[in-house]
Write a structure and sequence with these properties.
This protein is an alpha/beta fold. The protein is built from 9 helices and 12 strands.
């Protein structure tokens, strides 16, 4: 296994962190070298496998990302915006590929990530799944083919614990629709309608969010005109699709030139 890239998983105790550990361990294409958690977390100092309730993996959870990144060729990061920008800077210093699946990133976060990408490879996507990225490309092409007589609405559903809305994937889809139309999403977005909102504005791109249960992720892009609708849909039933995509991204990033990439680059789309 010495000839395959060593990967660090940040936020290793979270749902995606655990899934990433399993995916990397089972892949045969990468080796897990560390898991990172915040200082004081009960997993720190423990074997990751045992902390997850399974057999030992011979890999320890640490609260020192600098030391962990120095032993790795890649970092996979599904954490929080504040943590992600710190990890981006550290990964850039270590010159390791940083795969970012964190959502809820704002302009200030993106500026710091872009600065880090001058020194290392960063692959960032609101969704790592192959199916979703195909949906993004289809959304862009259909939006380019239809004029503003077709209203665009994006409806997304996730589990009750998700803290940001619209989802990162929904925003990816909205940006794709806006790019297809040659407009700015920021100038077109309408999110969370409530009360007497008035008639729908021509050219708007609407968003609606559903939260409940253990929904992994569902996204609908609706193109609605008088007398007809086109609906594109993706349903995720297993978080493993995101982990597999992230692993593919960190493997693709080995040997690439420093810069910021997305899953379209990884998948050759």
């Amino acid at each position: 296994m010495a000839d395959v890239p060593g990967i660090v998983v940040t936020g290793v105790s979270g749902r995606m962190g655990r899934m990433l550990v399993k995916t990397i361990a089972d892949s045969g294409r990468a080796r897990l070298v560390a898991g990172v958690e915040r200082e004081g977390h009960p997993w720190v100092g423990r074997d990751i496998g045992e902390a997850m309730g399974g057999p030992a993996l011979g890999v320890t959870v640490t609260d020192d990302p600098v030391e962990a990144f120095a032993r790795a060729q890649g970092v996979v990061d599904f954490t929080t915006p504040a943590a992600t920008v710190e990890f981006a800077g550290l990964a850039a210093q270590a010159r390791v590929c940083h795969v970012i699946g964190t959502t809820g990133l704002e302009a200030a976060h993106l500026e710091r990530i872009a600065a880090a990408a001058r020194h290392a490879v960063i692959v960032r996507a609101g969704n790592m799944s192959l199916g979703v990225n195909l949906l993004v490309r289809m959304t862009q092409k259909i939006a380019a083919a239809l004029d503003e007589d077709w209203d665009v609405e994006i409806v997304e559903a996730h589990h009750r614990a998700k803290v940001d809305a619209p989802s990162g994937t929904a925003l990816m889809l909205g940006r794709a629709a806006a790019e297809g139309r040659g407009v700015s999403l920021e100038n077109s977005i309408v999110s969370g309608r409530d009360g007497i909102t008035g008639a729908r504005v021509r050219g708007a791109i609407g968003f609606a969010a559903v939260r409940g249960g253990d929904i992994v992720g569902e996204h609908d892009v609706i193109f609605a005109a008088d007398g007809e609708r086109v609906v594109l849909r993706h349903v995720a039933t297993d978080r493993a699709i995101f982990a597999r995509g992230a692993l593919r991204a960190v493997l693709w990033g080995q040997g690439q030139k420093p810069g910021e990439y997305d899953m379209m680059n990884v998948l050759g789309l």
